[in-house]
Amino acid sequence: MVFAPEDALKVALVETGLKEQIDKDVDEFVQGVKANNYKPSEDILKELRKAASAFYVKYVKLSNVSTQIFTEMGVAIPGVQIMQKGFPSELKVRGEPSPGKDVAILKIDKTNLPTVPLGDDGKLRTGDKIFVIGYPGAATFNPMLANESVVESTMTSGLISARKTMPGGWDILQVDAAMTHGNSGGPVLNEKGEVIGIATFGKASTRITAPKCRG
Prior knowledge:
Blueprint: H1 8-17, H2 19-33, H3 42-59, E1 69-75, E2 83-94, E3 104-108, E4 129-134, H4 137-140, E5 154-165, E6 171-175, E7 187-189, E8 195-199, E9 212-214
């Protein structure tokens, strides 16, 4: 089932807030056909849940919608269950989607939170080494890994391949460090451990991968 972009919020709400109702609907349907000794496969059950979701997305109505932003931080300690804290956050600045600066600045009214120092990307040159920290999906949510591994970030390294310019007149750094879905928004650091950019976009083919980061 393909949903229109304007239904994105409804889809998210239905798949989370109405999950129990959807499961109940599917269970009642299955119970109704058991008299014929019919036992649906997992694929059929999955399709039934999709159909129920599509029904609610089409007919549910949203009103009095408000937005609240929370910044969640996780701490992984060997042998201890994952601890996550959500802090109310205030949106101060929001950029425009690419080719704009698709970055937001949030204010968290807390003290003693972890921070990273900022560096000067203007001092970097082609060939300089950089490091990328993020949560690539394949390495973060792999079912073979323990749950506490979810909050453990992944670091990759590489070199600056080129400095290029976006249509808006601001620079981006092309790097050869490995990045994939989930790295977007993660910090790019210089050899001093200072943040000099944010992982943003890239294009992969069978011959070359050229991720980009904003300075």
